[in-house]
Amino acid sequence: MKHLDIHKKVKRKKWLEMLLGSDWDLKPAGGATGEAFSARDGDRKLFLKCNSSPFLAVLSAEGIVPKLLWTKRLTNGDVITAQQWVNGRRLRYTEMNQPKVASLLSQIHRSAELLEMLKRIENEILTPERLLQQLRHKAMFFEEHYPLIYKAFTFLESWKAAVYHDEFVVCHCDLNHNNWIIDENERLYLVDWDGASVADPALDISILLHWYVPKEDWKAWLEEYHLTLDNSLLRRMHWYIVMHTLDWILNESNHEHGEQLEGWLSYLETLITEDRSSYC
Fold this sequence. Notes:
InterPro entries: Aminoglycoside_PTrfase, CcrZ_PhaseVar_Mediator, Kinase-like_dom_sf. By secondary structure, the protein is of the alpha+beta class.
């Protein structure tokens, strides 16, 4: 299987070389899928990606991702997108509480154009019920080995009705600090939209606040996002951060992350035993 993956990556690179021509120097641009490349021809440089999100054009038009230059379909069915290369860097962990992060996420969540486009592509809404179904499928045989997993599912099941929220937006669903790019002119972008879905905005906000912003700064951060911190939001964020943490554990438990996995299990236990009386 690994050999087939390598073969596929090599073949894809050859397709791109044929598309661009011999003047372009093509190199992998990171990522496990092997679908992203940088291409350089003298002073010209492009970011290329195979089969990226179909609504990349709308993201580009709203300035959320670097400018989309062109899209081409190869004879093998792959769709190639070329974006303007950004000279910048990923945000550091400690920079995620910046007002510009809150402002950009607010723009995304309030974009009617993005929501309309994603609804055309993705007709499923990630409700708490649907997210629980996905987690159950991933869990399979884990509950008997990790009693805490069973406890987490019990928590999520018991609270899913209480956190249902009928205002749905475009959620990025992977707000890791590595997906935030700031260029040399201090302009911020949010990239890697392959996992975007229509969901409660708390799905995104929960990760950003719980994992990157000190609790004493939540109110100020949300003011920049243009939202009030109230009991309803606290309750929803708590449910979603339990869901995110459980999802990470289920995804990574087959890999060799011994100490790291133990840390996440400990964090999960803290979350589901935390006193929530102030907003329940």
